[in-house]
Amino acid sequence: xxxxxxxxxxxxxxxxxxxxxxxxxxxxxxxxxxxxxxxxxxxxxxxxxxxxxxxxxxxxxxxxxxxxxxxxxxxxxxxxxxxxxxxxxxxxxxxxxxxxxxxxxxxxxxxxxxxxxxxxxxxxxxxxxxxxxxxxxxxxxxxxxxxxxxxxxxxxxxxxxxxxxxxxxxxxxxxxxxxxxxxxxxxxxxxxxxxxxxxxxxxxxxxxxxxxxxxxxxxxxxxxxxxxxxxxxxxxxxxxxxxxxxxxxxxxxxxxxxxxxxxxxxxxxxxxx
Amino acid sequence: xxxxxxxxxxxxxxxxxxxxxxxxxxxxxxxxxxxxxxxxxxxxxxxxxxxxxxxxxxxxxxxxxxxxxxxxxxxxxxxxxxxxxxxxxxxxxxxxxxxxxxxxxxxxxxxxxxxxxxxxxxxxxxxxxxxxxxxxxxxxxxxxxxxxxxxxxxxxxxxxxxxxxxxxxxxxxxxxxxxxxxxxxxxxxxxxxxxxxxxxxxxxxxxxxxxxxxxxxxxxxxxx
Lengths: 273, 224
What we know:
The complex is a heterodimer.
Chain A: E1 7-8, E2 11-12, H1 16-35, H2 41-68, H3 71-92, H4 100-123, H5 132-163, H6 165-173, H7 178-203, H8 211-218, H9 223-252
Antiparallel strand pairs in A: 1-2
Helix pairs in contact in A: 1-2, 3-4, 3-5, 4-5, 4-9, 5-7, 5-9, 6-7, 7-9, 8-9
Chain B: E1 5-14, E2 24-32, E3 36-40, H1 47-54, E4 62-67, E5 70-71, H2 77-83, E6 84-87, H3 98-103, H4 119-128, H5 145-158, E7 163-167, H6 175-190, E8 194-198, E9 209-214, E10 217-221
Parallel strand pairs in B: 3-8, 3-9, 6-7, 7-8
Antiparallel strand pairs in B: 1-2, 1-4, 4-5, 9-10
Helix pairs in contact in B: 5-6
């Protein structure tokens, strides 16, 4: 391997020297952390190491998957990604009742598959339908964004219901169903899940260049051609986030109520969560 | 010969999750039309818990409840709660006007078949509790504590339940507001209802019966 940047079809390749230089900056931040007693040097080191290991592994896995060219392998990888997303959602909603993993996983499966294959099959029209070079990165973007939206919406649903527990009790006492009693929290939460996506759509191209477009431009694509892809992806990601947040909240808010429709406020829950 | 029972509870038991001792340990009580029962007892004795159990708002309580001799199992919970209505201790009005708050019960699916009171009825009912100077368009954010407490009591009374469960309805209220609350409560009983009130300090002479919760059991307080 040479020390100077190589090129491959117009793409400037990153060599070990460039990696070393980038790592140097992180080391500098670590020294800063030590001197200012920020206490983040350990997690910084671990995160840096994880970046190296995880992304290298990702590169190798993707190269292997692209070579194997099997629809089952692609579907299996998508399923793994969805399970990881559902797991992350559960971890990020500490106030949520037990049993939201199943509804999160169902949400990720439904929105992930629908939106990913809507993009690759109907809009980009890749041939064959499972072409991993398209399907896996697009699924990654769809899942990553809708996971953030869903986690935010779920976290807000249960935090808001806990905060409104007095109001929910008063409404239930007047004869409200769980849906009627939780309605305000559900609306607040779904809105909260969608706002980051709407904001990023509004700021795209003015404040920042979206990730996919950045990648295509760095890879030598014509910026105007990259625009089309980016618009499609942004719209589909918004759709995935909206669908995912609504679905996940609707599937799980009822778990915080008893079979008789009573909100299980803190102190009335059988579990300690 | 005792009056026929409107609301009855047999062998009510409740142990909160994680607790070892029961808060309510086999309470049986019967409430008749025209009763105005005061429930007293030390803090944490289970007075609020008892009211929640009556309204079927206490998950995992074990109890045989009946309303008009119909067992609770034969009455859907939401319908039960419209007939045995709990007013929680903490007043909670929605954002919006007094009218919106008073009409809130009729926005719920359970009352779609009923017609809500009109403005004339609402205004008259406000006058009946000394709030005649408040416009129906007044925003509830601008009400005093005493006004808000009376509005939320009026809201539940207007739905015409059979049994009204009041959790410290006049705690934190000035004497004047407390008197208005007592008047409205007594009028509800006189109109053919029954009331179970949790009370802490004040005695207003309105009660027809007084009971005390002590270590999970209900003790009848004999009038002195």
